[in-house]
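Cross-posted from the bioinformatics board.
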Amino acid sequence: MRKTIVTVMSGICLMPLLTACGTQDDTVKSADIFAMDTYMNLKAYGRDAEAAVAEAEARIYELEQTFSVTNDASDIGQINHAGGQPVTVSDDTVSVLQTAMQMNSESNGALCISLYPVLRAWGFTTGEYRIPAKNEIAELLQSSDDTKITVSGQTVQCPEETEIDLGAVAKGYTGDAVMKIMQEHKISSAIINLGGNVQTLGSKPDGSAWTVGVTDPFAPDTLLGTVSVTDKAVITSGNYERYFTGDNGQKYWHILDPKTGCPADNGLVSVTVIGGCGAECDALSTALFVEGTERAIQHWQNSGDFEMILVTAGGELLMTESIAANYTAKKEMPCRVVHSNEEP
Ligand code: AMP
Ligand code: MG
């Protein structure tokens, strides 16, 4: 089950108008690609849009190779098979690892990239799902500790049994890399959707904000609402994105709680994070999902440099004060605005 793509309502309706105008500055280039095990769409407006999108596409494939957990020759493959020895990796890998390790610390271990062996035991890496025995999980959790990963310059070292996976952060980092290329090509208006991670550059060509859909976790083919953003990443982690149903009828999803090694079940079914940096928003969406409602609110109150929309298992919508003004509901549900100075 692939990650459900968040609906993006971009400037599609502008395209005939832009073509009709015909000046070079109005060029729009769009590309659909499949990479990192998900569908992606890139759309850029501007004189150099075609070259920007082509370069961005090549960069995505490059990062896919660098971060691949199934390719033994990739940076991650080498780290995972190093048997405890130091490995020299690319600047990209260093940067993603730093973001992930910082989030591991800020979330009290909720984001944990060294959970890979536990994810594999559940079958989330292959699709061959199973419910591992408690003692199997307990044993695998012993090697899941991001604080044992060291990064010094371009050298990474992990304990022998540790294996990492950047699934919670890599797409956000890739989105940032794409936006950097867009800026180098002087693109002032772009929107990309990397398997549900939406990132925007500037505003729509007509100057208005981008409208990004937020999926209803209880009915993933429909929207809960939309947010209006400029120059922002809108990144969601949800329990509907990848899951299986056990013989007992219970739903088991792909975001695990490092404390238990089981699907994180701390009161939230989806978390959308809105902020300036894709890698951070991606790391945050996964971390906050694991942290659960109260700790997610505390995390936001302590950090403050992002906005969030939480959906609780009980069907309540919680959103931080600044994004509330830019949110348009598509579904009626109880909603509460969270303030920076309130008790969670
Ligand atoms: P996301 O969709 O960004 O929330 O990332 C979810 C993916 O991150 C999963 O499919 C796993 O590959 C991986 N993952 C699951 N649980 C965790 C966790 N607690 N910390 C870090 N990565 C995780
Ligand atoms: Mg994430």
